[in-house]
C-alpha cells in the first residue's frame, strides 16, 4: 500500500460557481521537467453515472493547455496519458449520501483498490488521478463545481469536475486551477498563505496561480518530475489570460480543510 506513509498529509480544495476571473500566473521558464498523469475515469459498478473528465477533444486540449501554462512557471510540462476506465461504485460515490461528506480515508482506499484492479499506472512515478462523482472529503456538489483531494508528496488524487465547467472558458480555467493545485500537492507542496498563489487553501482572498521560488524548487525536485531536454514553452493558451473571452458566470471561491 504505497500511500500509508503519507496518509496523514491529506489536503483538499474546492471551487464553486459565481463570476469569472482569469488565471493569474508568472512568465514561463524553459521546460526541463515533465510530470505524467494517468487519468482514471470512474463509473458505478454497472457502468452508469460516469464521472466527467475534461469534456470534448477541443475542451480537453484547452484545459490541458491551461494546466501546462500554470506549471510552465516552474519549467514543468504536464503530460496526460490516455484515460483508463473503471467501474467501481465505491470509488465513484463512496458509501454515504449526497448530504454527507465522504471520509478523507476514501482516497487511500481508492488508490489501493485501483492498483489492485490494474487501473492505476504501473509506473509509481506517474501520478494517478481518479475522476469521480464525489471526491474523497466532499459531499455531492453541483455541476458548476470542481474539487479534489490529494496526497502531499505521494501518489494519488480524487478529482471531481462538474459537467458544466468544460463548456466555457471560465469553467475550463476553474478546472485547470483545481487540477494544477492537486498535482502540486503530489509534487510535495502543502497549502500556504500567499497572495495569488496556486497553493492557497480554500477561501483565501486574492486568488491566483503563481508559484514562489521555493515551491518551484520543491516541485522540480519531486520524484514525479523527470528531466527532459529543454524545450521552448510554445503553448498559445497563455494568450487567453489577457483576453476577456465573452461573458461568463463563474467566480472561484475556495473552501478547504486538512488533516
Automatic annotation (TrEMBL):
Residues 1-21 form the signal peptide. Gene3D superfamilies: Collagenase (Catalytic Domain). GO terms for molecular function: metallopeptidase activity. It holds the Pfam family Reprolysin_3. Keywords: Membrane, Signal, Transmembrane, Transmembrane helix. The keyword Glycosyltransferase does not apply. InterPro entries: MetalloPept_cat_dom_sf (IPR024079). The chain crosses the membrane at residues 230-250. This is Matrixin. It comes from Rubripirellula tenax.
